[in-house]
Design goal:
By secondary structure, this protein is an alpha+beta fold. The chain has helices at about 5, 10-20, 45-55, 115-125, and strands spanning about 25-30, 35-40, 60-70, 80-85, 90-100. Strands 1-2-5-4-3 form a five-stranded mixed beta sheet, with helices on one face. About 20% of the residues are buried.
């Protein structure tokens, strides 16, 4: 059995696997109230989401929530699409944030990766 699986999934292990696979595409790691949060560029949102889903150790296959947040004081990054993902087997949640400008609010659609994303993305688009 894989040594990492035997040790259990930790925020440090999640961060390590993400940086090994996605490198500089991942940044601003933070841990608030035990939940690991991080950012990816909007060009890499699907790549990161797919890796989190496919990786046999990480196994983040449940999209708990998808929403948008407005940051009017951040020129060029006024909008954030926030993905809350859950590894049901280890009962661990993480948060991925993708920032974009209000002038170009386009972010790649995640509904091909998760059927649950479809309705949440429509609600977020209305925002």
């Amino acid at each position: 059995m894989d040594k990492e699986i035997m040790m259990g999934l930790t925020n440090e292990l999640i961060k390590q696997r993400l940086t090994e696979k996605c490198g500089e595409a991942m940044f601003h790691f933070d841990e608030s109230y035990g939940m690991l949060s991080f950012e990816a560029s909007k060009e890499n949102n699907l790549k990161v989401l797919q890796f989190l889903f496919d990786d046999e150790v990480l196994n983040f296959r449940f999209l708990t929530d998808l929403c948008a947040v407005n940051y009017p004081d951040l020129p060029g990054s006024e909008l954030a699409v926030v993905y809350h993902l859950h590894n049901l087997q280890e009962n661990i949640r993480i948060r991925l944030k993708v920032f974009t400008s209000i002038a170009e609010p386009d972010v790649f659609n995640a509904s091909k990766l998760s059927a649950a994303a479809d309705g949440m993305e429509r609600d977020t688009l209305d925002f």
